[in-house]
Amino acid sequence: MDKVIITIARGFGSGGKRLGSRLADDLGIHCYENRILLLASQLSGIDKEIFQEANEKLRMTNYTQSFLRGLPKRKTPHPEEREFVSDDELYSYEKTIIENLADSESCIIVGKAADWVLRDRKNVINLYVEAPRDYCRQEVMERMKISAEMADSAITSTDKYRAEYYQYYTGGNYWTNPVNYDLTINTARVGFENAVRLVEDYIKIKYPDWVPPINR
Asked: Please, what is the Cα angle at 88 between 35 and 129, to 5 degrees?
C-alpha cells in the first residue's frame, strides 16, 4: 500500500479535528481542514475567463499542496452560525482539491464530505468522531472561552450546517450514518489518547503493509 488517506467527520466540540492533527504528527503526514475551504473560496472568486486554467492547475501534482500549506491553520474551534446555502461551484473546487490530495500523498482530510468524495477508493479509512453534548460543551467553552449557553448555540448551529451540507452534496445521504465509516468513535467514552491509539491500531489492521512516512 503506497498511500493511505484518513477522512474525519466530526461533531462540533468532539475533538475530531484535534484527533486529525495528532494522527498527522504521529504518522508524519499532513492534515488538511479549513484550508481546503479557504483555497476553494479563493479559486471560486476568480474571473470566469480563467476558470478552466485554474481548474487545470489544481489537478497538477504539487500545485494544491504548495498552496494549501501556505494558508493559515485555524487554531481554535470555528462555529458555523449561518444557514446552509448550496454553492455548487465552490463544492466543485473542494472536491477537486480532495481528489488531488488523495492522488498525491498519504494525508488526513477533515470534513467536506471527504468520505463520500473518496468512497470508491480502496486506500481510505473513514472516521466519524462524536461525543455527548456535555462533553462537547465543555470542550467548546474551554477552547473558545465562551459561556455554556453560547457553546450550546455554537454546537447546535454548526452540527446542523454540517448535516445539511453533507445531505445536499451526497444526494440525500445522512452525515451520522455509521455505514459511511470504518470507525465511529465516542471521545467521551474512550478518551482522546485511546482514540488516537485506536485509530493507529486500526490502520495497522486494515493496511498491514503500509509504512507511515515517519517510520521510513
From this structure: 50
What integer best gives the mean pLDDT of the chain? 87
Q: Return d(Cα 44, Cα 97) in angstroms, integer.
A: 12
> Which of 49, 53, 34, 6 is CA-nearest to residue 158?
34
Q: Minimal CA–CA distance to 213: which of 64, 87, 30? A: 30
Give residue 46's pLDDT. Answer: 53
Q: Which residues fall within 8 angstroms of residue 192, CB to CB, at 6 or more apart?
A: 15, 18, 19, 22
CA distance 15 to 128: 11
Helical H segments across the chain, by residue range: 16-27, 34-44, 51-58, 63-69, 88-104, 114-117, 133-144, 148-169, 187-190, 192-206
Residue pair 173/116 in contact (Cβ under 8 Å)? The answer is yes
Enter the pTM of the model: 0.88
Give the bridge partners for 108, in sequence order: 6, 31
Contact 129, 122 (CB under 8 A): no
Altogether, the residues listed in the chain come to a count of 216
Beta bridge partners of 10: 129
Is the confidence at residue 153, as pLDDT, over 70?
A: yes
The mean pLDDT of 90-108, rounded to a whole number, is 90
Q: What is the pLDDT of residues 159-196, one digit of tens each?
A: 999 999 999 999 989 999 999 999 999 999 999 999 99
